[in-house]
Amino acid sequence: MELALISPKDFSVSHWAGGITTQLYIYPTTADYGKRDFLFRVSSATVECEHSDFTLLPNIKRIIMVLKGQLQLHYGEHGECHLLPYQQDTFDGGWNTSSDGQATDFNLMLQHGTDGSLSVVDLAPSRSHTYCNTASLLLLYAAEGSCQCFGEGQSLSVSTGSLAVISGEGILTLENFDTSPCRLICVRITLPPQ
Questions:
Q1: What does the DSSP 8-state code read for residue 8?
Q2: Which of 78, 143, 157, 179 has the highest count of CB atoms within 10 angstroms of its CB?
Q3: Which of the four pLDDT bands, split at 50, 70 and 90, describes residue 178?
């Protein structure tokens, strides 16, 4: 198991029609979002317009979670979905998708046989959470607060806005030594066989 930390100063920030998007992680790390040659991409975006149209991403599975605010997602003939903070939905990037509402969201994009999921881990002060990582890659984004990650003799601190990247299987322990709660977005990735 290997642990690495990516801080906000290392994220790639760009503008889109509805606001600002921050690329938190792309895999492989040499991939280019514009060329769509990634296996997966994790980002967070602000939706600043009351109504916005999503970029068409054919053949890409998308999972979106609202971090702040709320969104009403419209998937054309495929229905719609209303999301409040920390609720999520999965949709096809090739659908004509639009949204109403202003929010900050968290996005996972998957393609080429890559599988993934999003979940929320809440740690109250002085609490810990231990689990066995069996994913190809595990990413932990600190949406609120901070915690310490321990895995096989390694440790790192994850604070608000930073991203921990854990590769390899093993036991991982998360501990909140702070006086404030910690909320992590957990991204589990299973890469396709090579």
A1: G
A2: 143
A3: very high
Count, residues in the chain = 194
Check whether 19 has a pLDDT greater than 90: no
Distance CA 23, CA 10 (A): 9
Edge-to-edge strand list for the sheet holding 19-27: 12-16, 19-27, 40-47, 103-110, 61-69, 88-92
CA–CA dist 142, 164 (Å, integer): 8
- pLDDT of 144 over the 80 cut: yes
Beta strands (DSSP E) in the chain are: 2-6, 12-16, 19-27, 40-47, 51-53, 61-69, 71-74, 80-83, 88-92, 98-100, 103-110, 115-123, 128-133, 137-144, 147-151, 154-158, 163-167, 170-175, 182-190
Q: Which two tokens stand for residue 28?
A: 């492989």
- Asked if 176 and 157 count as a contact pair (C-beta separation under 8 A), the reply is no
Question: Is it the case that residue 194 has pLDDT exceeding 80?
Answer: no
- 3-state SS record for 85-125: CCCEEEEECCCCCEEECCEEEEEEEECCCCEEEEEEEEECC
Q: Is the pLDDT of residue 95 over 90?
A: yes
Q: Are 88 and 62 in contact (CB under 8 A)?
A: no
pTM, entire model: 0.94
